[in-house]
Every structure is written in C-alpha cells, then in structure tokens.
Amino acid sequence: MTKLKIPVSADDHAEGPESAAVTLVEYGDYECPHCGRAYAIVKRIQKHFGKRLRFVFRNFPLTQSHPNAEAAAESAEFAAAHGKFWEMHDLLFENQEQLDSGLFLDLARKLGLSTPALSLALEEEHFADRVRADFSGGVRSGVNGTPTFFLNGVRYDGSWEFPELLLTVDEAVETSSQPTQH
Amino acid sequence: MTVSTNESQGTGAGTLLAPGTKAPEFTLPYAPGQTFSLSELRGKPVILAFYPADWSPTCGDQIGLYNEILPEFQKFGAELLGISVDGPWCHKAFIENRKLRFKLLADFEPKGAVARQYGAYRGADGISERALFVIDKNGVIAWSYLSPIRVNPGADGILEALEKLPK
Fold it and tell me: What is the ipTM for the molecules in this complex?
C-alpha cells in the first residue's frame, strides 16, 4: 500500500471542505492527454459528491515528454498567487491541445490577470520551486505516472474511469462515515 | 479487485536475490556494438530496473517516469540502469524516441540470462519481471523489490533505499 507522504495542507489547492469524508489528491500534468480525460471525469465526480468530497491538485509535469507542461504548471501557480488557481487549472485542461506561451497569456487576460506579470514570472521562474516541490513530494509518495490519484492518503491503482472511480469514492465515503469502533 | 497469484508472484521465476547478496557481475550490450559491465560502476550506488519490454504505453510508463525523475536519483550520486530482454537495436530506437538519459541494457543473448541470475525472469512469458534492485557502492544488494507486472512501482522504494545507504 503506497501512501501519500506529503499530507494535504493549507498550501494545497483544494476544492471542497476540509471536513469532507473523502479527500482525493491528483498528481497531474496539464499536457498529459490522460490527465485531460481525467479532468472531465473528476468534474463529474465532484458534482456527484458535492461537499462529501475534497479535491486537491498537485503538479507533476513530465517535462521530458511534454515541452509545455512546466510553463503550464507555473502559469496555474501564478494564477493561484492571485486567487485564480482553479479558473486557470480548468482553462488549461479545456485548452490542452493549444498549450503554448501565447495561450497562457490569453488565459491570464481572460481571468483579468496581468500578462506582463505572468511573462516575467515565467521568464524568471518565480513558481518553479513550488512546482518542483510538488513533483519531488509526488515521487516520494510513489506517483507512477500521470494522473496518479490518492484516496484518503493511499495511492489508488484501480481504474479512474467514471463508473469505477464513482464506486470507489462512494465506498470511501461509506467507510469514513461509519462510527469508529473501539 | 483480485490479482492472480501468477501476476503478483511471477510464473516460475526464482526468488529475487535478497539484500546482503553480492550483486552478480554481468556484461551486456547497451547499444549496437557497445557493452557495459556492472563493475564499471563500483564506488557508486546503482539502481537496476528490470522491466518487461520497451515500448509500453506512454505517461504511465515506468521507464519514462524514471527518465523524468533522474535528477532525484542523481542527488544520491546513483546511476540508473534499465534492463530488459529487448535487443540493442530495439533499445536504441526506444532511447531515441523517448529521449532517455540513462542506459538500457540488452539481456538478449542468451535471453534473460542476467534476469535469471537475479531471480527476475518470468519463464512462462519469456520476459523480465518488473523488479528493482538498489546495489551499494561495494556491489552488494541493499534492497530488492518485485512489483506486480502490471503495476508501475514508481520510485518511492528506490529513494528510501538510497536514503538508507551508509554514506
């Protein structure tokens, strides 16, 4: 059983309440087509479980095979610094096939963020350490490709297709809402 | 979810060489016409990653992942060697295609001989197991792990083993 070594904290990007029965952590790459597909599935899962689920996204850019993944991750972190992480995260996945520096600036503009500030942040790698920290933590936790999911702190090696993920999260919700036996 | 015994244990493979065992020496081609010996790395920790085959799917692929996280291994001064029964020309094409930054050794002739020595051969399928070894700077196995063949083991076990090596 492979466990999440870096616990979810206030530094994470999370949707859903801390008190949620289930926390789903994804290590993902904006340029990875599997993550693009998982993005839509996770949205449906979030909609289904509402406040019973907290979803956390961490960066795991596979830069050797995906030339735009690092800059995409840093753009999302730039948006996060201005309170727009999830907006940028969603737009990046929704425009996954057009990822390049022009798109990052367009998306920033769309979100009302300063484009010169984003250009500077990318050029000077202001958010590279943050992305690298996510990546290293992921490696330590046994992330074995993208996307890798952790369900309540344990790596989920099963299928993340909608029916299977739905069932798995549902079981986790059931388990965690049962009263603890002493 | 059930995992069959054959999948998790391998079919007919011996047991993996255990920690404390001297890592068997070998010389294998890593490119057409070029060979490499384990003893060339004496003095450095070595990660030996047996894997079933080149060209498994991208993104979730173990070799591609290790290529991405190579700097994490290098922090320990460790050298990574991939090893499968694919021939050197196959490795060459795979390395070029995936831009791999470490050597892949061809355990090709006699087929799987090194995998057998390490107890990491899957006789029924004619391929290596997905097996990991961390060898210390003196050439002694410090850690070994047999992964279910369909599960990419990631690198957490390797990093923990490297961390525990005496400095």
Answer: 0.79
Q: Which of A63, A136, A144 sits opposite B153 (nearest CB)?
A: A144
Active-site positions of B?
A: 59
Paired strand residues for B50: B83, B131
pLDDT (tens digit per residue) in B101-150: 999 999 999 999 999 999 999 999 999 999 999 999 999 999 999 998 88
pLDDT-derived band at A174 (thresholds 50, 70, 90) equals very high
Q: Do B115 and B50 touch, CB atoms closer than 8 A?
A: yes
Q: Measured between alpha carbons, how far is residue B125 from residues A172, B6, B52, B87, B108 in Å?
A: 37, 11, 9, 16, 14
pTM of the model: 0.87
Q: pLDDT band at A41, cuts 50/70/90?
A: very high
Judging contacts by C-beta atoms under 8 Å, the chain A residues touching residue B161 are: none
Q: How far apart (Å, rounded) are the C-alpha atoms in residues A157 and B147?
A: 13
Helix (H, G, I), strand (E, B) or coil at B111: strand
The ranges assigned to domains in chain B are: 12-164
Q: Note the pLDDT tens digit of each residue in A55-72.
A: 999 999 999 889 999 999
Q: For all residues of chain B together, what is the average pLDDT?
A: 89
Nearest 5°: phi and psi at A114? -75, 125
Architecture of domain B12-164: 3-Layer(aba) Sandwich (3.40)
Chain B contacts in chain A segment 17-46 (CB below 8 A) = 32-34
* Residue B121 near residue B128, CB atoms below 8 Å: yes
- Strand ranges inside A44-156, DSSP E: 53-59, 148-151, 154-156
Do B1 and A158 make contact, defined as CB atoms within 8 angstroms? yes
Cα distance between residue B28 and residue B51, in whole Å: 15
Tell me the C-alpha distance between B128 and A52, whole Å: 43
Q: Which domains can be identified in chain A, with CATH numbers?
A: 13-177 (3.40.30.10)
CB contact under 8 A, B72 and A158: no
Work out the pLDDT band at B151, boundaries 50, 70, 90: confident
